[in-house]
Amino acid sequence: MRLPAMRRSASVTLLLMLGTVMAACGSSSPSKTATATNVVCTAKTGSTLAVLGDDKHLEDSDNIIPIVRTSVAQQPLIDALNQVSAALSQVALVNLNVQVSDDRVDPTAAATQFVSAHNLGQGLSGGSGSITIAAQGFDENETLADIAADVLTKVGYTATAKVVGERELYEPALEANQVQAVMDYAASMTTYLATKVNSTLMPSTQIATTVTVLKQLATPRGLTVLNAAAATDEDAFAVTRATATAYGLKTLSDLATKCPGGVTLGGPANCPQRPECQPGLLGTYKLKTTFTALDEDGPLTRSALNSGKVFLGVIFSSDPDATPA
Amino acid sequence: MLGANCLRANSWVCGAYLSSREGQIIHFTIQHLELSGLSIGLGLVFAIPLSLLALSRRWLRASVLSLLGVIYTIPSLALFVLLQPWLGVTHATPVVVALVAYSQLLLVRNFLVGLDEVPAEVIDAARGMGYGPLALLWRVRLPLALPAIFAGLRVTTVSTIALLTVGGVINQGGLGSLLFQGFQDNFHAQVLVASVLIVVLGILADVVVVGLQWLATPWQRAGQA
Amino acid sequence: MARHPLATGGPGVSLPGQTISWLADGNNWRGVNGILDLTVDHLEVTGLSMLIAAAVALPLGIGIGHRRRGGRVITVVANAGRAIPPLALIIILASEPSFGVNTRTAVAALSVFAIPPMLINAFTGVRNVDVDALDAARGLGMNGPQLLARVEIPLALPLLATGVRIALLQTFATATIASFAGTRTLGTIIQINQATNQEQAVLAGALVIAIEALLLDVVLAWIQGAVKPGPRTRRRWGEGRPALDSVVAVSVSEAA
Amino acid sequence: MTDAMIRLEQVTKRYHDTVAVNELDLAVNPGELCMLIGPSGSGKTTTMRMINRLIEPSSGRIFLDGDDVTHVDPVQLRRRIGYVIQQVGLFPHLTIGDNVGTVPRLLGWDRARIRARTKELLELVGLDPDVYLRRYPAELSGGQRQRAGVARALAADPPVLLMDEPFGAIDPITRERLQGEFLRLQHDLHKTVVFVTHDIDEAVRLGDRIAVLAEGGRLEQYDTPAKILGSPATGFVADFVGADRGLRRLTVTAVDRADVETPPVVHVADAVADARQVMDGAGAKWAVVVDGEEHLRGWIGRDRADGEGTVGDRAHRMEAWVPLGATLKQAFSEMLQHDAGWVAVLDGERFVGVLTPESLHTALRRSVDDEAGVAVEESPLRQ
């Protein structure tokens, strides 16, 4: 039963929306396939991840290292944070991550348990004044900041941990005295400070060298670098287990040889600017990558990897889910 | 007991989450109430002079409403971000200022609609009996405009509480921050609890405003009785 | 203009200056994360969600309005529509593995929130049709469907158009937020650059979003004017803008 | 006439090119109910609203109780003048009690005095305070709301009352009752009232004097209802008062002793034969039957007066009667209602005389001729 009038007048409303969509689809959105000069690797979907070995040591020593403003670097603070570094073995760090990320333990609870387990802050006192410890927006760093806060509180400071965000946010805050300390990552901070002052200094695979270089860069900026911990948390590059078996990938070098045409890479937005991220893959491994900005080993990266939207994903080496390929 | 099984399984409904993160939940809920309460309060404080200004001139009324309409069109995230450089990143001022700006269209327009709907004969009778202009506004026109004003307040209250959530993506959104953090940590229970709390706050606030209206307008009650 | 405490921008050049230069920079418009490309994605997501929502909301609203009953349901939908924050549903769906982080999930969430404004205004539009006009039409011998097509819908068209307009603007805004849950929209400019504190890019993105929303509003206002039956009245700026949130119109009547 | 309660001197109201009221002179004496009547656009409402300065006069002067109020503070002025309008305008958000107490509260009376005055007024207008004091306007009927409106206007006991078609929106039956009650109220309170209406019957019934205004506020005639109806000063008034103004005359002319005829009167205890003799002597077909104290007991027709017996047991009951002072209109309606050839006129219980159609007609003409001083031949009734 035709409704002439209805079709005529109501069609204007539907046309309105159709028009919006037609205009949108009509234009050609650039296809997102990789360049096809030679063998093209396509990601296989899967829910478990496999970390490709850093055989050419692209990732330098990203050991956890407390960095504080020199203005607050009194002895009680230094001793307390150095105690924390001393207690942070790789196993201890991974265990912390398992508790917080998998068992969903509250970071503050996990921190207090860690501090008492290693009776940190024992025999130390004399701290005074308030200290804000900056934390990056992911579980591990929040937990480390909580641990530092606990210990400093034991030593007498009024210490609080505060989530600030990426290094581009908390490093200037550190210099501007909006925050006073951070549990940082040696190699990454070294590279960040080097690029910030256009210095040619570079972190190395040996933590000792990296620390000396870091001190050289940090001291002039009013920052004091304390002892590095044994635990490290570098960027790690992972593919789905299915992709790893499909292409027989064990290390990043395998990937470079198996997929000369290059692969899609997903990770934190600052990866293209960080030498140990996208540039490093090209420089050290000659691996071409087309980058999609996602997040810091978060839901966006994980789902992109699992759904095959990206071939290679940047995750944390200390991430409990990341088992070697 | 650390890490009960439903937490490890990351299931959506998980009582253990409530007990393990009680402090955090309470903290963000209070922050949500504070920020939205402040925004609504300030919204009212700004709406009254703005409405009186709009009342004073015919053309003013049209331009005030269309200006507020333009602000209302700007997507919330864009306005939050646009205000940050001027109002600071590390605290919630930009979000509150934006929410206050959004609330003005509904509050001012309902204020004016309310005043328009006051019956002409009531005003004529009042003036005829010796009400001066101020007394007329305060004791006759405002009370009779209350129903429409409350209607606007109800909508503003509920939508402000919901809109604050968007602040979560820039870490200034009360329960919105808990929600977004939950997403980033892929923590299902936290995401669900934060969402449900926001909706519950919205509904409770709506009930409170309806209660206030019930108290403030006895004649409406009587009319319906 | 107070310097941004955490800004890492170059010395001397003020933030607005940087923002303008970012906008003036051609290759921020082209390329995968360029403004043009993201605008297309943004409109695609918005348009699709609107289509789905309209297919549900308009017939339902008109139907209920025609039968004059079901006002209670509409009020509940209106209140729910306001109380539930769209970001919550987007994140819940994105976190649920069965949906996952993709455009399909975002469109599902966005269309859910596009329904209330259209449903409410369609219902109100049809229900508020002048009863005398209806009696007259019945008197002339029109049956149900003819009544609907020849009288109720044409007369309800202005409010219907308002509903579509509000829903479209609301969906456009919500789509911006969806970028933080992995959907490529204009919000992606903010999401990416905020993480790396590229403040001028974030501001530029916000500016583009705001301006596009306002442009969309102007276009919609014009279309809505065209749809309105009856004499063309010259409308001053803003005068023709009906209550942007005419859900209030329903709530005013609800409350009163 | 300096002792007028309200006096308008050359009062004019101009709206840029149109003249609503044109140099109007009007004086209302204390306690007088002055009706303002005229077609729409005659400026009657504008005139009234200039008295309490809701509309500012363009020129001319207004005196209230002798003071020139043309330029005093209008807000204070209005608190000395009661104000009632057609849609009442009760404050929906206040109880009836608070509504009535509005002006006293504005004048700063203390609470107890306001409460007492409010109760008194509600009773005065026939609204039981115990029931209506705490009610809201929405819970009252149209008539009740209008009573509350009048009570509110009288609250501060103002000397002057302005009423703008107060009963215009009320159904005829209730209006009739409200008009009656208002007349009774006015009888007790003797307020000076300016009452605007477009209903000539209402003007005639209520007004002590009627001001007929024509287009542009020109005062056509300002006189008693009887005069207005009996001898309209101009064609305009005649047309306005309406063709059946003669009929309306009836409503304003009271039955007077001089109008009645004296029919044969027999006593209830008389014998029928005597009654027969009296009627035949007077050549009348009927006679009125009274008792000892001259109280009317009925009437007896000549055809029923044959045979023996007392007049009492032959008399018919007398339905059609009116009290002295009633209007000719009531006499006529009694006559028509009982289809009686004549109507008895009683003074309290005592029988005075009867009115026949003939005597009613002469009574009507008499009232016109006396007032207008016009010779019988040219009296308008002839046309």
In the CATH hierarchy, what is the class of chain B?
Mainly Alpha
| Separate helix tally of chain C | 10
Largest interface, C-beta closer than 8 angstroms, per-chain residues: B-C, 63 and 58 residues
Name the overall outline of chain C.
Answer: elongated
Strand count, sense and closure of the main sheet of chain B?
none
The count of domains of chain B is 1
What is the rounded Rg of chain B? 22 Å
Overview of this protein structure:
The complex is a heterotetramer of chains A (325), B (225), C (256) and D (383). Chain A is α/β, with parallel strands linked by helices and 325 residues long. Chain A is built from twelve helices and eleven strands. In chain A, helix 11 (278-285) links the parallel strand 8 and strand 9. Chain B has one domain (22-216): Orthogonal Bundle (MetI-like fold). In chain B, helix 3 (22-56) crosses helix 10, helix 7 packs antiparallel against helix 8 (133-163) and helix 9 runs antiparallel to helix 10 (188-216). Chain B is elongated. The mean pLDDT of chain B is 90. By secondary structure, chain C is an all-alpha fold. Chain C has helices at residues 15-24, 35-67, 71-83, 86-95, 103-127, 131-139, 144-178, 187-195, 199-227, 247-255. The radius of gyration of chain C is 22 Å and the shape is elongated. The B-D interface holds B 119, 121-132, 135, 140, 143-144, 146, 217-219, 222-223 and D 52, 54, 75-79, 83, 85-94, 102-103, 106, 135-136, 138-139, 149, 152-153, 162.
Task: Provide a quick synopsis of the model.
The complex is a heterotetramer of chains A (325), B (225), C (256) and D (383). Chain B has 225 residues and is an all-alpha fold.
Write the topology of this structure.
The complex is a heterotetramer of chains A (325), B (225), C (256) and D (383).
Chain A: H1 4-26, E1 49-51, E2 64-69, H2 75-87, H3 90-102, H4 107-117, E3 130-135, H5 139-155, E4 158-163, H6 167-175, E5 181-185, H7 186-196, H8 207-218, E6 223-225, E7 235-240, H9 241-247, H10 252-258, E8 263-267, H11 278-285, E9 289-293, H12 299-306, E10 312-316, E11 323-324
Parallel strand pairs in A: 1-11, 3-4, 3-5, 8-9, 8-10
Antiparallel strand pairs in A: 1-7, 2-5, 2-6, 7-10
Chain C: H1 15-24, H2 35-67, H3 71-83, H4 86-95, H5 103-127, H6 131-139, H7 144-178, H8 187-195, H9 199-227, H10 247-255
Chain D: E1 6-15, E2 18-28, E3 33-37, H1 44-51, E4 59-64, E5 67-68, H2 74-78, E6 81-85, H3 96-100, H4 102-106, H5 111-124, H6 129-132, H7 142-154, E7 160-164, H8 172-189, E8 192-197, H9 200-206, E9 209-214, E10 218-223, H10 225-230, H11 235-241, H12 245-252, E11 265-267, H13 272-282, E12 286-290, E13 296-301, E14 321-323, H14 328-337, E15 343-347, E16 350-355, H15 357-372
Parallel strand pairs in D: 3-8, 3-9, 6-7, 7-8, 11-12, 14-15
Antiparallel strand pairs in D: 1-2, 1-4, 4-5, 9-10, 12-13, 15-16
